Each structure stands twice: as structure tokens, then as C-alpha cells.
Amino acid sequence: MPAQPQAQPAPHSPWRLSVAPMLDWTDRHCRYLHRLLSQRALLYTEMVTTGALLHGDVARHLRFGTAEHPLALQLGGSEPHDLARAARLGQDWGYDEINLNCGCPSERVQRGAFGACLMREPQLVADCVKAMVDAVGVPVTVKHRIGIDQVEDYGFVRDFVGTVAQAGCKVFIAHARSAWLKGLSPKENREIPPLRYDVAARLKADFPLLTIAVNGGIKDDAAVHAQLTQLDGVMVGREAYHNPWWLARWDEAFFGAAPNALTREQVEEAMVDYMEREAAEHGTHWYAVARHMLGLRHGLAGARRWRQVWSDHRLKHLGAREVMAIARTAPAPAPLAA
């Protein structure tokens, strides 16, 4: 039987290396895959709004597998009392950390008066953090941008961190781009504002007793190592999702732990086992799980054809194990004519 993910305590800071919270991506199925690949990386949920928890289906938003630890819950909100209640729910459900989103630039999030626009109100963020710190015993952390709109003044983010730290937040994850709240889409906000890793390093120099991690544009081992020479942690976003096999190197490369002994084929088989359990226990179709592992063969010959099979809606009537058999026996694309 393929190996199952087994969470183990990390010998380093929990924030040394993590996978970013990504809306519509880092659900529990995605996190199961990531935990198969790395036992040590810190994983995050998608952002969950306080309204969804306080007025919606709590189990749907907070259910996770015990193998996912260490696992943080990211919350979106701006009302201290509501955030405290939501944080307490997260702790009761067993999350290892509660993270407040002060970095999302989308207009929908702005209409809810949270995300990156909260950086304009550091005292409100401090009030939110204090309410959560008073409500739970697990770490309360903040993910933020280095600025908003086209403000390049380091003092803006320095004062934000300083104010929020006084409320009890000891861990900050800085996305090393400013958030332009008008005129750019969320996708453009991940690409157009320049990356300024030096700002995160300067925050660490000014606040040496705080844990400062950096997020944004980090795509390979060398970039991770470079940031870890001056910061406490690195958070990886889309590269971890599109090229998940990279995570299989993380435990050995960044935590000094034993290397991941699983092959890509064994990871695929473990995911199929998971798909079958999910179907039996929750009625989850394999198609909803498979989308998260489409990058598993990234860079290998035949990866495109394998990915096409697993994403073919015409095969949805088949079982996951049958689809795996088709994906593994699918003919390679014919060579181009000379």
C-alpha cells in the first residue's frame, strides 16, 4: 500500500518554509497532496471570512485531516469581536495558528473592508489581533503587503508592523510587493508591482525579536536559501501549486530531515486511495481532487498527456483507479514531422 502522510514535529521554526494560502487552490485536497510531499512545511487554508464561519457551514470550511498538521487557518475580517469568535472556532477545530489576511488586493475583499486595505488602519488591525490573541492560545500571525497603492515609503510598513506587534503579534509574513488597490486585477497585483525583498530584510533588522517571513516570486531552492540567510522564513505560493514535486525536496534541503522516499507514481497512487476514501466518506468526486495534482509530472516527458487524462471531464463516469490506469498507459504524442 502506498505510504500515507504522517505529520511530524519540525526541528526549525514553524515558519521556516510554508505554502501560501491561495483562494480556490489550497483546500484540504491540495493540502493532502502537499503533506505527502513534505512532512515539515507549514500549510495554510484558503482565506475563510468571519461571516462564512459565524453564519455558514463551519464544518465545510474548517474540516481537515489530522495528517495535515502543522496547519494554519487564514481569516478574513475587520471586526475584532467577530475575528475573536472565528479564531476560537479555529482553535477548537485543532488549527495550529490563526493568520489574519492583510494582503489580498481584490475589489471583492476590499468591499468587505478587509485584506490589503486594512493596512491603512494599523490601529484597527492591532485591535483585531489583540482580540484574537486574548481569545486563543495558538499563535496569531499577520500576512501583509509591503505597501498599498504606489506608496514606496518604508516607514509605512515599518509603522504598520510596529503598531500591530504591540498588540501581541509576533509573526509577520510580508508579501514583498505593494498592493495597488485601484487599476490592477489580483493577477496583475502578483506581477506588476516590483518585488522588494530588501524591505522584508529591513523589517527584520528593525524588529529582530519578531519572526519575519517573506512571500512573493520565490521559485527555486537558491531563492529560498538566499532569503533564509536574512529572514526567519519563506512562504511559497503558485510555484508550489503548479510544480508540487518541488516540495519533495524541502524536508531534506531546508529542514535537514530525511528525504522523501516516495516516487511520483507512489504519490499518485496515494492520491487515488485518498480519492476513493473521499468518495466513500463525503461523496467527493475524484475530479475535484485530481485538479490539484496536475503539476505532479511537471517537466517530465509525457506530462502533458498524463495531465490531459486526469483533467478530461469525459472520464468523470469512471472510477479514479481506472483513470489512473488510462493516464499511465496513454500513448505519448506523435513526434513532429521533420
Describe the protein.
- With 338 residues, the protein is α/β, with parallel strands linked by helices.
- The protein has two domains: 17-255, Aldolase class I (TIM Barrel); 264-329, Four Helix Bundle (Hemerythrin (Met), subunit A), CATH 1.20.120.
- The chain has 16 helices and eight strands.
- The protein has an eight-stranded parallel beta sheet with strand order 1-8-7-6-5-4-3-2.
- It is globular, with a radius of gyration of 20 Å.
- 44% of the residues are buried.
- Mean pLDDT is 92; it is low at 333-338.
Average pLDDT for all residues: 92
CATH architecture of the largest domain: Alpha-Beta Barrel
Judged by helices, strands and strand pairing, the structural class is alpha/beta
The number of distinct helices, counting runs of at least 4 residues, comes to: 16
Number of DSSP strand runs:
8
From the structure above, extract its key features:
eight-stranded parallel beta sheet, Aldolase_TIM, 41% helix, disordered C terminus, Four Helix Bundle (Hemerythrin (Met), subunit A), NADP, alpha/beta, 338 residues, tRNA-binding, TIM Barrel
